[in-house]
Amino acid sequence: MKMEYNFIVKRPIGDVWNSFKDIPTVASCMPGAELTENEGDGKYKGNVKVKLGPFSVFFEGQAEVKFDDNSKSGYVNGNGIDRKGGNRAKVSMSFYLENSDEGTKTIIDSDIQLFGAIAQFGRVGIIKETANILIGKFSENLESRLSNEPNEIKGQNKESINKDITTFDLLRGFLKWLYSLLPFR
Fold this sequence. Notes:
Largest sheet: 7 strands, antiparallel
Mean pLDDT: 80
Number of domains: 1
CATH superfamily: START domain
CATH architecture: 2-Layer Sandwich
Helix content: 25-40%
CATH class: Alpha Beta
Order of helices and strands: EHHEEEEEEHHH
Low-confidence stretches: 150-162
């Protein structure tokens, strides 16, 4: 499943680039993610927990990250397994940063492959909308971190940054997806 995202961080490109290269910072801004080990040479181990209403997955996995300082771009290749639910995931993602009038535009192209029961959710657009919610929360958390604002200002203290996706988030995302299918919009 191919997905593309872009978002603006209202900070200079150098600040955003440095934060992207700080993997513990990136992991701390991603809802449900936990970095467990730095194996060196751009290789990491970690966990990702995502809860979609009554359904939850807990992936344990590894990723390799490479950066190109000249083009302010990079890529991530990773995979994980949800031992309890028998689900597996594989992701390839490239990203690059560019200057914009508002700050720094981040463009992400990803290819996610899901196997097991979770793959069924991809057929109704839930996975894409869940990913949209996660990327949105990630960009808010990153902006807050770079602005040195206390996370409480945005209602996201340390405990709630990795909070589950609520039923309301999922319903809002699903309705947005349904609206996108309408021919008259």
